[in-house]
Design brief:
- There is one protein chain.
- The longest helix has 12 residues, at 79-90.
- It contains 6 helices and 7 strands; from the N terminus they run ααββαββαβαββα.
- Helix content is 33%, strand content 21%.
- The protein is of the alpha+beta class.
- The strands form 3 sheets. Strands 1-2-5 form a 3-stranded antiparallel β-sheet.
- InterPro entries: CBS_dom (IPR000644), CBS_dom_sf (IPR046342), Diverse_CBS-Domain (IPR051257).
- Keywords: CBS domain.
């Protein structure tokens, strides 16, 4: 029987609670990841942050209406207002948008149980942690699919 330890990704990219939302967005693009564990100062799991968390922040971002004609862009509101709105959102930190206390598993958790947990909890990534909540790896949906030997 395969376990989390057998299929987990051991090279884990992380962020900290004080990482800015702007920096987080850059990491998602640079690393091509959908979710990242958030680690505290003691390198323990603080939470998990996803691209969805970034896009659906509870602070509303008012995007001004834009008209594009012949490659010219006209803001129907002032560019200054637009920049202020973007700065409001990018000034936030990961701890304001991450999911705290996400589902986790142990290295010995069976893959079938992980798959069910992903469905039940509606998550795409599960951190694999030790007794002290240090992240040993992560299991994503692709890891589970690869384990099926399709």
């Amino acid at each position: 029987m395969l376990t989390a330890a057998d299929i987990m990704t051991r090279e884990v990219y992380t962020v900290t609670p004080d990482t800015s939302v702007d920096e987080l967005g850059k990491k998602f693009v640079e690393l091509d990841k959908n979710a990242l564990p958030v680690l505290d100062e003691q390198k323990k799991l603080f939470g998990i942050v996803t691209q969805t968390d970034l896009v659906e922040q509870d602070r509303p971002l008012h995007i001004p209406t834009v008209i594009s004609i012949f490659d010219w862009v006209f803001y129907l509101e002032s560019e200054k207002e637009f920049r202020q709105e973007v700065e409001k959102v990018t000034a936030r930190r990961v701890d304001a948008i991450c999911r705290r206390d996400p589902p986790t598993c142990r290295p010995e958790t069976p893959v079938a149980e992980l798959a069910q947990m992903m469905v039940d909890k509606k998550v795409h990534l599960i951190p694999v942690v030790d007794d002290n909540r240090h992240v040993l790896g992560v299991v994503g949906r692709l890891d589970i699919i690869r384990s099926m030997n399709l």
